[in-house]
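Priority: medium. Attachment 1 of 2:
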């Protein structure tokens, strides 16, 4: 006879990961039912404003690849 379900803390790491994936998929399929806390919205706005004031210097993949290849020569 198979073991009866245990506490989630007794699950193996792969079982825990599967549980998290299943829970996430369920939440994502009902995303409109999940309320976003105000502090999340405020933090997002704060980060967006910071980025707009001082956008990061970025390189596209081709430029990065070229720099890497030059280093190896």
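Attachment 2 of 2:
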């Amino acid at each position: 006879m198979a073991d009866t379900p245990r506490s989630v803390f007794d699950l193996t790491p792969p079982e825990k990961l599967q549980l998290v994936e299943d829970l996430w998929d369920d939440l994502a399929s009902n995303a409109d039912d999940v309320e976003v806390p105000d502090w999340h919205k405020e933090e997002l706005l704060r980060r967006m404003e910071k980025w707009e004031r001082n956008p990061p210097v970025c390189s596209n993949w081709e430029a990065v690849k070229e720099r890497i290849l030059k280093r190896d020569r």
